[in-house]
Amino acid sequence: MQTLYSLYVLMFLITFCESKNHHLNFNVSWVETNPDGNFMKKQIGVNGQWPPPAIHVNKNDRLEIEVTNLLSVLDNPNQPHNLNTSLHFHGLFHNITIPEWEQSNQNDGPEMVTGYGIPYAETLLYNFTVGDQVGTYWYHSHSGAQYLDGLRNSLIVHDVEKEKEWGITCDTTVTLSELYYKNYYQVMNKFLSRFNPTGAEPIPDAFLFNDSVNGTVNLEFDSKHLIRFINIGGFVSQFIYSPRLKFSVVEVDGVNVEPFETHLIEIGTGQRVSVIIDTPSEAEFQQMNHHYYGLQFPIYQIIAKSMLDVIPEDLELIKNNLFLFPGQEWPSAVLAPEEPIESDELEFDDTSMTPLKKIQSLGKPDRQINLNVKMENLGDGINYAFFNNVTYTAPKVPTLLTVYSAPEEMLFDERIYGDNINAYILKKGEVVEIVLNNDDDNKHNFHLHGHNFQIIRKGETDAGHYESELSYIKDYASEKQFPMIRDTVFVEANSYLVLRFRADNPGVWLFHCHIDFHLEQGLAAVFIEAPDEIKKIEHKGISKSMKHIAEKYRLPYAGNAAANTKDWLDLTKSNRQHQPLPDGFTLKGYIALLISTVVGIYGISVIIQFGLDVEDENDSEASVAKNTQLLNKLQNLIADSN
Ligand SMILES: *[C@@H]1O[C@H](CO)[C@@H](O)[C@H](O)[C@H]1NC(C)=O
Ligand SMILES: *[C@@H]1O[C@H](CO)[C@@H](O)[C@H](O)[C@H]1NC(C)=O
Ligand SMILES: *[C@@H]1O[C@H](CO)[C@@H](O)[C@H](O)[C@H]1NC(C)=O
Ligand SMILES: *[C@@H]1O[C@H](CO)[C@@H](O)[C@H](O)[C@H]1NC(C)=O
Ligand SMILES: *[C@@H]1O[C@H](CO)[C@@H](O)[C@H](O)[C@H]1NC(C)=O
Ligand SMILES: *[C@@H]1O[C@H](CO)[C@@H](O)[C@H](O)[C@H]1NC(C)=O
Ligand SMILES: *[C@@H]1O[C@H](CO)[C@@H](O)[C@H](O)[C@H]1NC(C)=O
Ligand SMILES: [Cu+2]
Questions:
Q1: Ligand 2, residues 9, 27, 68, 122: which to mutate, most atoms within 8 A of Cβ?
Q2: Which end of the chain, N or C, is less surrounded by CB atoms within 10 Å?
Q3: What atom in ligand 1 is closest to the CA of residue 36?
Q4: What's the 3-state SS for 408-464?
């Protein structure tokens, strides 16, 4: 399967010598692709190839990646304007406190958090060491929802000793993602629109298995295979179900775990789960003729259907892929699962796993941060996502550049970072507890940059709010002694999460939902960790290549969130979210208004043609979802007639 897409850079050198420098040039440009065999789509590739290269390095290696933005309108005429790009290295800590590592927080990458995006025809250098981190990571654009167009792939940090200890002879990666036939800015325009008042997420056109379909994973007899599954998509969670060969989960999000045996894993966007398969000998294999599967060894890729608002009839939610043993070929038909599968009923409990390295629960927090998640419309009719009452609205100066430029005495004053980014200042060394209550009836998966965290509590679906006062008065003995640690975790619908980490990594770190649509709706907070240390260690400030970009494009690289360098507490010119909808203006009322507008312009026939429930007094979820879908169609109609 991969022969078509096998043009990638492989830099994995099994060497036992000291750390190595990997210098890469990434020319980022549009590439014609057809990953599912059904649609030619312009996607974002690197050096003329898509998918972008899988990066393989060893522990302690350094990566120098020079990224040049060549996203030309000539190569993709539907591009509305010049697009920025950027890279983020999901799961890597970029620890600046170790002088020998010589690296900057600027390498983390999200636009307007640690720097500016890379404009067309400009180049930015990312230069960092992976340090002592090992395992499965990935990189992706962090400019809007851009990575939905393919600028993402795996970043594997090999730990040669560990791989020897596991006794593996094969090590491969399988990425999971979704494919939209439209380009990301088109998808986003339609999504973040007053014609989509319920915030219904766009439905993917296809789902990919290692950037293709009908995937195969070749196995050898009598050997141990490591398979690193990564969800590099931007929306739905996916399950991998292997009814015949058992998985032994050994690594989750770069954290080695006590081997956990299962046939089913779940991987939300941003998450990684690595498994070992201990394969049969050839003789054993011959005996494995199953009453239903025969000698087929399926890998079912199951889409978490509850996350989709509307399910088109022709969208396959269970995809067939196969393990192939030597001599086997792709059969004329792959068998469906023996028992019917309902994705809503599947469960993979990550909290029941235990990290291999015994790290005690961090115990009583020094600091508690309460974040309540909700989705709501603002006065512009668009559906936004909020932590508490704030939807992340990018500041005028990237937050890290505010840290670099602020006077010493202002650094710990939350106000300078702006009142619309959910800024939280953390003190060096304190134990931080995030209590996240999800008031939305969808599940979300949250990712913290610069850290992984202990999962202290994870409520079941509809468990409601976590009683946060309890965490101070209860005895911590009831907590799991060695809680699970990872960097991206689900909160179930109408439920809660309690996470803890130690603020031992000075930097400006984004905490956000890894469903890219929700991030674009503003579901993000910014942790400004030990700003005094950042300023001291990174006294050189903005990098040469970033400064060049800022100067050329007249972008401010000093000042508070409003780019004010004179009065640090004057934020009058900062970016702010829209005003709320007027009181008593409900979602249903909003839909009714839209419908009457549409009727006004196009007449009732359009409504009838689309079967919109104008008189529908029923505001059940199903009816709202249906109307939303129809409104989307109407919006297209309006767009087409313009
Ligand atoms: C994948 O398999 C399906 C079902 O057998 C087939 O219809 C389709 O053409 C295949 N697609 C590709 C790209 O191989
Ligand atoms: C990147 O593009 C530049 C300018 O078009 C070209 O000179 C360079 O060789 C390209 N680099 C790679 C690695 O393709
Ligand atoms: C990357 O950073 C290292 C450490 O500071 C430095 O030695 C090296 O020259 C840098 N690479 C480039 C291409 O500037
Ligand atoms: C690209 O980034 C520059 C700053 O780097 C910013 O001024 C501009 O608005 C961005 N453009 C887009 C399309 O996001
Ligand atoms: C998946 O694709 C990557 C390249 O992006 C390749 O290295 C890997 O071997 C592929 N995995 C399988 C199972 O073929
Ligand atoms: C959010 O609520 C707080 C406290 O009620 C208030 O001070 C702040 O101005 C509000 N922010 C926004 C953006 O509405
Ligand atoms: C960063 O490095 C320091 C050592 O200087 C260490 O104590 C800390 O745990 C590291 N932080 C992370 C997140 O790895
Ligand atoms: Cu979300």
A1: 27
A2: C
A3: 13
A4: HHHCCCHHHHCCCCCEEEECCCCEEEEEEEECCCCCEEEEECCCCEEEEEECCCCCC
